[in-house]
C-alpha cells in the first residue's frame, strides 16, 4: 500500500453506486446521468466512469467509477455542482446503495 509525501494513502478508490430506477423512469434517469457523466469527466482525480444496465427485469442499474484517491472522490462528491446534479436523480430512483473500496487483489484474463 503506497503512501504519499504527507503519509496519506495514495491508493486508487473504486466506487459502486447501485440504484433501482422506478418503473417508467429509465429515460429521465439516463438524461440526468448524462449530465452527471459530463461533469465528472473533467474532475481532477477521476479515472473512469461506467454505467451498467440491468441484465434482467430488476430495474437495478450500477454506476462504477475509479478515482486516483479517496480525497479526489470526496472533494467531488461534496462539491456544490455534484449536489445540484444528483438531487434531481432522486425523482427516478426508489432504492440506492453506495460502496467504496480499494482493490487489494485483481485477476486479469489472458488474451489469446
UniProtKB/TrEMBL annotation:
The keyword Oxidoreductase applies. Keywords: Monooxygenase, Oxidoreductase. SUPFAM superfamilies: Dimeric alpha+beta barrel. InterPro entries: ABM_dom, Dimeric_a/b-barrel. Coiled coil: none annotated. The keyword Oxidoreductase applies. One of its GO terms (molecular function) is monooxygenase activity. This is Antibiotic biosynthesis monooxygenase.
